[in-house]
Amino acid sequence: MYTLEFWQKRASDLYLPANALIDGKPVNAQDGATFAAINPATNNVLAQVSACGQAEVDLAVASARRAFEQGPWARMAPTERKKVLLRLAELIMAHREELALLDSLNMGKPVMDAYNIDVPGSAQVFAWYGEALDKLYDQVAPTAPHALATITREALGVVAAVVPWNFPLDMAAWKLAPALAAGNSVVLKPAEQSPFSALRLAQLALQAGVPEGVLNVVPGLGEQAGQALGLHPDVDCLVFTGSTQVGKYFMQYSAQSNLKQVWLECGGKSPNLVFENCQDLDLAAEKAAFGIFFNQGEVCSANSRLYVQRSIHDEFIERLQAKARQWLPGNPLDPASRAGAIVDAGQTGRIEAAIARAGQEGARLICGGRRLTIDGSDNYIEPTIFAGVDGRMSLAREEVFGPVLAVSAFDSEEQAVRLANDSIYGLAASVWSDDFNQVHRVARALKAGTVSVNTVDALDVTVPFGGGRQSGFGRDLSLHSFDKYSQLKTTWYQLRA
Ligand code: NAP
Ligand code: MG
């Protein structure tokens, strides 16, 4: 049903939200500052977007504070808040094409991926937290009979969320849904590469009945709007998804300001282990390719390190090469494209540099490796595989955030686990084996927030997502994410005998 022509036509008259949304109203930056939102698939400027700075962040935080202290949202019966979040989920689906296009045009992902995965995924997250929030009970402590002690969860107040560009709508939803469900007010800063879907989402939230001031969006640059949120004395909690480097800045901002809670979802270099007793090597190869080439490799939990048992190594590489060919990038608006454009010229250049460096350090190029020009834009990278990657090479250690896979051979289970855990990161890992005891041993030994067994990138709103080490701490999704958005209150009632 969907064709390139359909999406091109739809894109030509698409409404592009370009103002901040503060206190329920569209707002320009006070100094008139804007930044250009560029389509990486054409290098055309899509719109000039308000570049929020200190002044707008102050307004947004004040609005969020007012809404939290005086407004109805935090005081609403859970069943009522639930209705609003369920309405928002429905509105997201009603605007599925529009939201999919906004993300695709902004950051280059295939529009059909946004349509089939990102948009329904974000609707599901709002619906799930909406459904959950009136089924949460608090606790009574097992005190001696002379007292009653309740342990209740309370909203924190003003939550600031700073998110990246790789899944713009979903990263916003993962933060907003539980934060709002818990009764907080939120100020959201999308990445400068991808402000549109967050701004549109906030408009839909208003339409669904989220009161003015409860959800504010301040597009802008990281060093301005992002830093101002990190340092703000009236933000209670800062949730972040992005690079490890910037995550570290947020911990510093907190220490320099009001010791706001900081929760970080940062980078990764996730290992994928394929053992010789894996029965379905073709599926393992297909998923290994998906694990690194989906979303142009711009995935925090991308399976960017592949460890294959030496006895099956060469055969596996052959299968993998065939699978890689299916991930050649194309016009993101073409439903036939499985991969699209890299988010911008800067990131494309960094991926190119990582490829060049891997070659210089002695890794063996199996396929890909080139920057491509498609329809006049050169923000494309071929699906790229290097073999013979040594644990000391930068390709084994540093996150590329592009479609570049590092393959190494191993001889024993013990060696495979050691190589997999030899990283500063600990976000995700995958294991392929049909030996029941082996998968249990290995899954336990891997240092990762999520271990996928006989699949990759296992992800569902029902299970926590996040990592350890320098991939961050705290968890998105599932009921566990409420730990980020609420604090415990103990109330002790001393009783007379
Ligand atoms: P990034 O450069 O760290 O940016 C993330 C956010 O932080 C953006 O909104 C950015 O704003 C802002 N920012 C940048 N510099 C800042 C500063 N000095 N002070 C305050 N805020 C600042 O990351 P990205 O390039 O957008 O995304 C890729 C990274 O995200 C990868 O490392 C990936 O692994 C990670 N990621 C992690 C997860 C996870 O769940 N663990 C999920 C997705 C992505 P501007 O864009 O406007 O500069
Ligand atoms: Mg950025």
From TrEMBL:
Protein's UniProt keywords contain Ligase: no
Domain Aldehyde dehydrogenase: 30-490
UniProt-recorded Gene Ontology molecular function terms: aldehyde dehydrogenase (NAD+) activity
Keyword list, A-Z: Oxidoreductase
Record's keyword annotation contains Oxidoreductase: yes
InterPro entries: Ald_DH/histidinol_DH, Ald_DH_C, Ald_DH_CS_CYS, Ald_DH_CS_GLU, Ald_DH_N, Aldehyde_DH_dom
Pfam families in the record: Aldedh
Signal sequence range: none
Active site residues according to the UniProt entry: E265
EC code(s) of this entry: 1.2.1.3
Homology family: Belongs to the aldehyde dehydrogenase family.
Listed name of the protein: Gamma-Glu-gamma-aminobutyraldehyde dehydrogenase, NAD(P)H-dependent
Native source species: Pseudomonas inefficax
Gene name per UniProt: puuC
